[in-house]
Design brief:
The structure is a single chain. This protein has one domain: Sandwich (Immunoglobulin-like), CATH 2.60.40. 0% of the residues lie in helices and 59% in strands.
Length: 138
Amino acid sequence: MAVVKELLRTEQDGTLSFGNYQLDAKAKVENYEHDGDLYKVKTYRELTKLEKNGMFAYESQPGTSVTGFQETEDGVAFQVEAAEDAQITVGLEEDTEYSVSVDGGDVGTMKTNLSGKLSLSVELEGAGEVAVRIRKNG
C-alpha cells in the first residue's frame, strides 16, 4: 500500500482512503463529499485525523495512511500503514462493547467511553498494511 497522495479519496468499492504519514508539514482537505456526508482530513507525520459531518471519526498518533475505511451499523473496518507503531482512536457508539481484531488476530472486547471513542495501539513499524476490524457485540 502506498500513502494516499490525494489525502482523501473514494475507492471503486465505495470505501474511503485517507492520510499521508510521510508529510513533514500539515495538510488538509475539507468539505469532501462521500455518500451524502462531508468529510475533513488533516494529516502529516505526527497526526492523521478524519471528521465526518463535523464529528470525530478517526485519529492516529503518529500519522497513518488508511485504506478501505468503511463504517457500518456494526462498527468499522480499515487497513492502516505507518512508519512506526500508532495509537488509533475511532468514533463509535457511546458506552458500547466491541470486538476488536488486528491483522486477523483477536485483540478482545473493548468498551467505548461516554463520548463513543475507542482507542487501541497497533504495531505498524515494518509491518506494511495491517487490517483492523471493530465490530459491535450483541
